[in-house]
Amino acid sequence: MIALPSSLNANLVIGIALLVMLLVVAGAIVRTRSLLAAIILFSIYSLVSAVWLVVMDAADVAFTEAVIGAGVSTIVLLGAILLTRGEVEKPGWRALVAPALVCAGVGGLLIYAAAGLPALGDPASPANAHVGRAYLEAAPKEIGAPNIVTAVLASYRGFDTLGETAVIFAAGIGVALMLGFGPHASPLPPAATIGDHHVVLRVSAKFLIPLIALFALYVQFHGDLGAGGGFQAGVIMAAAIILHALVFGLRDTMMAVPPRLVRSIAALGVLLYAGVGVACMLNGGAFLDYDYLFPPAFEKQVPGWLLGDPEHAHHWGQHFGILLIELGVLLTVAATMLTIFYGFAGRTVEAIRQERGA
Question: Domain map of the chain by residue range?
Answer without folding.
Answer: 1-117, 124-358
